[in-house]
Amino acid sequence: MKRVLSVIALALLSFGFAQSEIEANVINFYPDVKKSAKLSQSGYQLLVTNINRILLESSQGATDRKHFVLYGIPNIFEEHIIPTVPPIHKVLLEVQLVVGDVSEKRTYGSYTYTHLVGVNRNKDRAILQALRSLKTNTEVQKFLRDSKKKIFDYYKNNCNVLITRASVLAELGKYMEAIEKLDAVPNVSEDCFYMAQSKITEIAKIQNQNTRAKDRQRPNEDTKSGDSKEDKYSWIESEK
Asked: Known SUPFAM superfamilies for this protein (predicted)?
């Protein structure tokens, strides 16, 4: 009996590891940062670099595919000038990290670094100093793992709904939007993934058959929205 229980426990443990490995391999994040008037270009680039480093150090992996984003939102909420000669700038800021699904416009979790302090005679350098204190820790690693698990569960449990939505978009002539939604489906379930890929092929054929109609750019045809990055991610902050 003990041997049977040991075998069952080992099987469950192996399944858990296998599922975690699948999540890690098929769901990767694109690092990005909200532009801020108070954040210099150097600060923006440093924050993107730090987020990318956090992903790598957490064994989560970064990607250029912009389906799942790890979005950094910096907030400089305290600024002091210490009246020395020359004056010294002290800044206190926080950075919120949000895991978002660009295709579905959903968020799966957030984590906030608080009390990041920078002190320098130059304000921008003080901000850079504060941003350099952004380090990987066990809490942010857990946040990333939990967010991936939520993504995994969402796509596994809503496969038919997602494919139906894409089909409706295709019927409205919004072929590219439909294809982009289907292409965002991660391989968390072979059945769902192959259904999505098959639907992409089907929609692409329909799109090719309607090339002349598309060229006439009817009102219900697929067009580029031209949204800026901030518009693209506005739904993230609306869910905060």
From this structure: TPR-like
